[in-house]
Amino acid sequence: MGVSHTTDKTFENDIQNGLTLVDFWAPWCGPCRMLAPVLDELDLEMGDEATITKLNVDENPIISQAFRVMSIPTLILFKDGKPIESLTGVQSKKALKNMISKHK
């Protein structure tokens, strides 16, 4: 399916069903660019278990502020629209897989 993108307008709809991992990022952020291929690999391996989507914090300030995202990358895992766990900074694929797997 591939990593998708969400916006302030589509966010609520995009996270309402199942597990959704949201990457709060910006194009100018070096660590965010380092994380992108990890998320692509994770999507290939776990795309049937969780949706992976990205939210550009510069273009979508409403959702970023609502979840008090102060540094990026911030990853928040949602289950049926509710935030259940978050991580900040570049993460390994293994750490992200473990986070998703324990909430299946």
Protein model, in words:
This protein has one domain: Glutaredoxin. It is 36% helix and 28% strand. The chain contains four helices and five strands. It has helices at 11-15, 30-46, 61-66, 93-101; strands spanning 4-6, 19-25, 51-56, 74-79, 82-88. The chain has a five-stranded mixed β-sheet. Strand 2, helix 2 (30-46) and strand 3 (51-56) form a beta-alpha-beta unit. The longest helix is centred in the middle third of the chain and has 17 residues, at 30-46. The two termini are 19 Å apart. The mean pLDDT is 95.
In short:
With 104 residues, the chain is α/β, with parallel strands linked by helices. It contains four helices and five strands, in the order βαβαβαββα.
SSE layout:
Elements (H helix, E strand, L loop, with lengths): L3 E3 L4 H5 L3 E7 L4 H17 L4 E6 L4 H6 L7 E6 L2 E7 L4 H9 L3
Parallel strand pairs: 1-3, 2-3
Antiparallel strand pairs: 2-4, 4-5
Characteristics:
globular, alpha/beta
